[in-house]
Amino acid sequence: QLTPCRLRTHQWCFILFNVLLFHVLLFGADLLEEYFLRSLPLSYTDAKTLEIRERARKLHMDPLKANLSFTISNAATCSDREIFLLVLVCSSPENRTRRNVIRQTWGNVTNARGYTVLTLFALGKPASVTTQLEINEEAEKHRDIIEGSFIDSPKTQTQKMLMSVEWTVTFCPQARYILKTDEDVFVGIPSLAGFLLSLTQLEDVYIGRVIHHAVPDRAPQSQGFVPVHQYPEEFYPDYCDGSAFVMSQDVARKVYVVAEEVPVSVPPDVFVGICAGNAGVTPIHSSRFSGEKHISYNRCCYKFIFTSSDMKEDELFKDWKETSGGGDCSLLETYYGLVSCKVLTYIDKFKQFNLDRIKNEVLHFAD
């Protein structure tokens, strides 16, 4: 009679162990990231860092406005408005359709919990005169485009990042937070705004998916080539992945002040990370930013996370419609949504891995 009891106890232990193991495998990586990527606050007692921070604090852009070079600036967009979250979407000049999709989905949010949200698009100049005329028309219609005076190309993305920071500190100094993101990203503005409102740290906010010990690209034939003489260190400092990250206005000012000392040959997200580090600002990790990963859709999951990358246009429409509609998710629904997102994302990765392997085998067989 004792044996069945023991068996039942063992069975319960086995079930609980497997449930625990399932959660460790599913969420363990995120928990480890949250722990190990929590950088220690930088010490800024050295004279140079203190001088950078003081220059940023006293920065006055009005005298410099005449020397700024923007093909399209829309400077009045931000004037005399209290902006809680300024969203700057780095976009390619030719991608007008994608910008329209964002305008009709998550970029259409102008108010989050009673606070003003403003979404703008940052571009470089197109090589085509026809495309430039289309951008002029688009800018006139929507009043949400900032265009630099450089040609937009893979090699000028760091210039675009610097231009975005320069525009922010010059024409939108009252914006409390700035979100930089890419045009293929879904952004959960309500959840992100709620998180930012809960922060007790009001300055030195630089938050995203932190990249640790990234290595500079030393291949001369690569588009992202960084010469040793421009960046001699073996590793980059910790920085937030460039698909989406948030910085407070004071961090934007510090990045602007120190920017001239940092080589523009490094990738744009690394550029911001180096500037922030030189100014004594530590990146803060949050696994609710997806980084470059695409997160498989679940309504309650997308209400909780901040971003999902590599979004197709039809996905953006569908996912935004479902996410923005309906009520809030309960704790249990959010938990189920996160589990569902994780499992489906792993399955999609496994499918993609198998497809890539099959393609490689076919190519090998053809050779």
Task: Please provide a brief summary of the model.
The protein has 367 residues and is of the alpha/beta class. The protein has helices at residues 2-36, 47-57, 96-104, 129-142, 157-171, 189-198, 249-258, 268-278, 299-304, 313-324, 331-366; strands at residues 70-72, 85-90, 111-112, 115-125, 145-151, 177-182, 186-187, 206-211, 239-248, 284-285, 307-308.
Task: For this entry, give a set of tags.
single chain; 367 residues; alpha/beta; Spore Coat Polysaccharide Biosynthesis Protein SpsA, Chain A; 11 helices; 46% helix; disordered N terminus
Kindly describe this structure:
It holds the Pfam family Galactosyl_T. The chain has two domains: 1-31; 37-292, Spore Coat Polysaccharide Biosynthesis Protein SpsA, Chain A, CATH 3.90.550. The longest helix has 36 residues, at 331-366. Strands 1, 2, 3, 4, 5, 6, 8, 9 and 10 form a nine-stranded mixed β-sheet that branches. The chain has a two-stranded antiparallel sheet with strand order 7-11. It has 367 residues and is α/β, with parallel strands linked by helices. Helices cover 46% and strands 16% of the residues. The relative contact order is 0.12. Mean pLDDT is 86; it is low at 1-5.
